[in-house]
Every structure is written in structure tokens, then in C-alpha cells.
Amino acid sequence: MAFLPYKFDGSNRPQSIEYLPGSAFTPKVGMALKYTSGKLALCSGTTKPEYISLVEKSGNLTAGDLIPVLRIHPDMVFTVPAQADASAVNDGQKVTIHSDGLQVTATTTSGVAEIVGRDGTGAAGDTLYVRFA
After folding, report:
1. What is the tens place of the pLDDT at every residue in 46-72?
2. At CA 23, angle to CA 17 and CA 25, rounded to 5?
3. Using CA atoms, how far apart are residues 112 and 96, in angstroms rounded to an integer?
4. In the prediction, which pLDDT does 11 show?
5. For the whole prediction, is pTM greater than 0.85?
6. For 40, phi and psi rounded to 5 degrees?
7. Secondary structure of 37-71 in the HEC alphabet?
8. Buried b vs exposed e over 8-34: b needs ≥16 C-beta within 10 Å?
9. What whole-number distance in Å separates Cα of residue 49 and Cα of residue 84?
């Protein structure tokens, strides 16, 4: 249940792990994050993520703790579960990020995650393939 790298479309960009300071949140592997005010923060709704967390903690970070993250590039495709029934959403449409930063919704208004494929019909819990271009 997270944004996990699936493939890189023809990229020759080197992918490396960055260590950036976090704000006070509980990171999970695959969580969508945004760098704001000098710290990483949970990304949700219509905010386009810039990073994906590579660490899981059982409790909140202390603001400023460094965590490993992967920078999102436009040629990356991620697998992610649908939090709600997205069977009526077409491939090519953009959906929003769920409030947990680990799933996508079926809301297309001001969406940021473009659906490029799916396993199954797109029902709640099905895997969707998305990119942030």
C-alpha cells in the first residue's frame, strides 16, 4: 500500500537516494512527500509530490531528522492502490492523492497522478499505474 517504482520509461538519468530533513510526521515506505519550508512533508490531495519516502518509522520524526527519499522524475511509473473505486476513471486522467499519502483517490478534479494502466478494473484496492508528469 504505497507508491512503489514500477518502471522508468527510457530514462538514462541516474537515480540516487537523497537524505533530506523531514517535518514531524510518521514516514512510511512509498509515501508521497513534498519539500516545503526546508523540510519534507506529507503530500496529499492536489499537491504534486516531489519525493517518495524510502524509510518506515513507527512514530513521528523529530523535525529536521534526515530520511532517505527518491526524487520523482517525469519518466517514472509507480504502482499504487486505489483507495476508492476508480473503475469509471479512464487511463490518461489524473486523480488526487489520498490523505495518507500512500494511495490515490478516484477524484479527477485538479488531479496530479496520471493513470497510465491498471491491474483489474480499478476497483478500490486494485493496483493502478501512475506517473507525475
Report:
1. 999 999 999 999 999 999 999 999 999
2. 95
3. 6
4. 66
5. yes
6. -75, 145
7. CCEEEECCECCCCCEEECCCCCCCCCCCCEEEEEE
8. eeeeeeeeeeeebebbebebbbbbbbb
9. 20
CA distance 21 to 15: 19
132 neighbors 113 (Cβ within 8 angstroms): yes
Cell triple for 8: 522508468
List, for residues 92-116, the tens digit of each pLDDT value.
999 999 999 999 999 999 999 999 9
Report the side by side order of strands in the sheet with 127-131.
4-8, 76-81, 127-131, 113-118, 94-95
CA 111/CA 17 separation, integer angstroms: 27
